[in-house]
UniProtKB/TrEMBL annotation:
UniProt xrefs under PANTHER family: AQUAPORIN TRANSPORTER, MIP17260P
GO molecular function: water channel activity
Topological type in the membrane: Multi-pass membrane protein
Compartments it resides in: Cell membrane
Record field: transmembrane: 35-57, 77-98, 124-144, 156-180, 200-224
Name by which UniProt lists this protein: Aquaporin Z
Species for this entry: Hyphomonas jannaschiana VP2
Assigned GO CC terms: plasma membrane
Lineage, opening ranks: Bacteria, Pseudomonadati, Pseudomonadota, Alphaproteobacteria, Hyphomonadales
Entry's family note: Belongs to the MIP/aquaporin (TC 1.A.8) family.
Stored Pfam families: MIP (PF00230)
Key words of the record: Cell membrane, Membrane, Transmembrane, Transmembrane helix, Transport
Gene3D superfamilies in alphabetical order: Glycerol uptake facilitator protein
Entry keyword Protein biosynthesis: no
Amino acid sequence: MKIFVAELIGTFTLVLFGCGAAVLAGEFVGQLGIALAFGLSIVAMAYGIGPISGCHINPAVSFGAFVAGRLGMKDMFLYWAAQFAGALAAAGALYLIASGKPGYDIAINGLGQNGYDAGSPGGYSLAAGFLFEVVATFLFLVVILGSTAKNAPAGFAGLSIGLTLAMIHIAGIQVTGVSVNPARSFGPAVFVGGEALTQLWLFIVAPLIGAGLAGFLATLNLTVSED
């Protein structure tokens, strides 16, 4: 139960403040500000809930840990349930907050959902979006699995992971809005519906592929392993 609550709170925080920066403050903070909001959310939660659950707050991270042999299947499904629930709750809270401003229309302003083709902020294709999400998630998991290994420097994992997520957003917001996290994509898509929901498959499949590759690489000891 402690792990479930921790992961729910952590994912809620990531989605509320990451997507919230785009929806509530995007015109003021710009792409860099949105990227930092996602990255700083990870840093904060890594030190806040990391001692309880490891601060996955991302189904792709849990899947990568499973493939790498660091997490059992039963536990992975527990993490997933908490993460998707937290993301959905955060998207609902963000919608209620955004609706408090006159003129807000979820069909026009959205909730920071991800997309490709017409749903991409920069008009990038499905192929470009899929490739970006696979590669970005793979590299994200390489950092996560390496910086949380037993022989990694203690106390710096949260910072390195948060900065990596910010870097990914700086480069990729125009491509897909950046997912690398199926739960982060799921919450907003459920509320926005339409195209965001029909395109959701990419932001589940591509991050899981990237995470799985990184997890498999860790088992070959080609990157920093847990032992």
